[in-house]
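Give me the 3D structure for Branched-chain amino acid ABC transporter permease.
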Amino acid sequence: MDLLNGIFIAPFVQMADAPDFLVQVLWEGFVSGILYALIALGFVLIFKASGVFNFAQGIMVVFAALTLVGLYQKGVPVILALILTMAVMGILALAVERFIMRPLVNQPHVILLMATIGLTYFLVGLGEFVFGGEPKQMITTELGLPTGSTEIPFGAQGVVILQHIDIAAAVIAIAMVTALALFFNRTRIGRALRAVADDHQAALSVGISLHQIWAIVWFASGLVALATGIMWGARSDVSFALEIIALRALPVLILGGFTSVPGAIVGGLIVGIGEKIGEIYWGPLLGGGIESWLAYMIALVFLLFRPQGLFGERIIERV
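Predicted structure for Branched-chain amino acid ABC transporter permease (319 residues):
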């Protein structure tokens, strides 16, 4: 009886007794969810263009953030450091297209997956060699990102605290997701991307350059990685531990669908809010730590009943 009360009654009583705290938890889950969606978007872009899961997206987040901070620490002005970091991600995109994607075109997807795993370890070694392995502090104020917090009265005596960096992170993430969604849905390059995703050979037959599309997509994914690294780094530190956070986007992809931009957004919000609510209200019952595995359990349920995700396309093969 006590177990049933702890699962089905007590958490909802706590929510009703402290609505301001519930709103605080929902807000923090929303911010985490939007940032998860931004990470997942980088995976979606690569998967839409090549049909392969880019295992290196997590280390790209770390590498971009380390490059920005490292350049600034070496005396480069912040705006120039930001521009140079974007240029570095562009060079990385061209290198990946020339030395990985182009030689492996039309190879089985598992070969491309293994290539991205190799790219991951290459970037880890390069990042440690150039920037060192110790955590670094993100240049938040230098980039013009806000600090501090605002307290908003809620109810009779409650209050909700909004960190300014969280507000900025949410706004920037929403703006980037919206801009990329419009770009890939309303522009000629976006239509070419969808054609490449559907059929490489058909896209080639109508004059679409796979090499150009792949370079553009990897560069866009690099920019997403940079924005993600800045936002997550501002909330904690810039370290190789961010790679693990980036891979937490895998449940987001399973929920939303590997090829869907709206799915990345919805999946990110489900995971972010679900993690926070589960950890705060059901965590004590299970000894804590729900936040580290709840998203994967949700993803497992989706794999059993809807493996293509909420917005993914059901693939039917007739034999």
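The beta strands are 149-154, 158-163. Let me know if you want a second pass.
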